[in-house]
Amino acid sequence: MLDEEVTKILSKYQKQESDINELLQKNAGNSQNCSEEPNKLNKQFPNLDDAVKRNRAVLKELETVKGTLRSKAIYSPSEMQWDAIYKQYQASPALPITSWKCHMSTYV
């Protein structure tokens, strides 16, 4: 009779027991992940020496890219202005005169 009562009680709480076991397994898995997380944090945030090396490499690469762009540039800004003036002169060869200078002829 005692065995039947025990089996009823065990069957009644079996679902809750399985839920508790699952939670315990998850917590055990989380604790293992927590022990591995400090390594992940170290990988996410490099130390000072690694950051300095990385930043210098980035700046060096940036200067290289700037130099490459400068060497591949067809026109500098002043050349572009002169190009616009040249095209304007081709469109209308008689440019307006903005300054006057009078040279008197001198007879000796």
* Overall average pLDDT: 74
Major β-sheet, in short?
none
> Structural class, from secondary structure content?
mainly alpha
Number of helices: 4
Query: What is the end-to-end distance?
Result: 150 Å
Helix percent reads: over 70%
Q: Per DSSP, what share of the residues sits in E-state strands of 2 or more residues?
A: under 5%
The ordered H/E elements are HHHH
Radius of gyration: 42 Å
Low-confidence stretches: none
Strand element count: 0
Q: Outline, from the CA principal axes?
A: rod-shaped
Give the gist of this structure.
By secondary structure, the protein is mainly α. The protein has four helices and no strands.
Write the layout of secondary structure elements.
Layout: H1 2-12, H2 14-44, H3 48-72, H4 77-91
Could you explain the architecture of this structure?
With 108 residues, the chain is an all-alpha fold. It has a domain at 2-74. Helices cover 76% and strands 0% of the residues. The chain contains 4 helices and no strands. It is rod-shaped. It starts with a helix and ends in a 17-residue tail after the last helix. The model has no long low-confidence stretch (mean pLDDT 74).
Features:
rod-shaped, 4 helices, 76% helix, mainly alpha
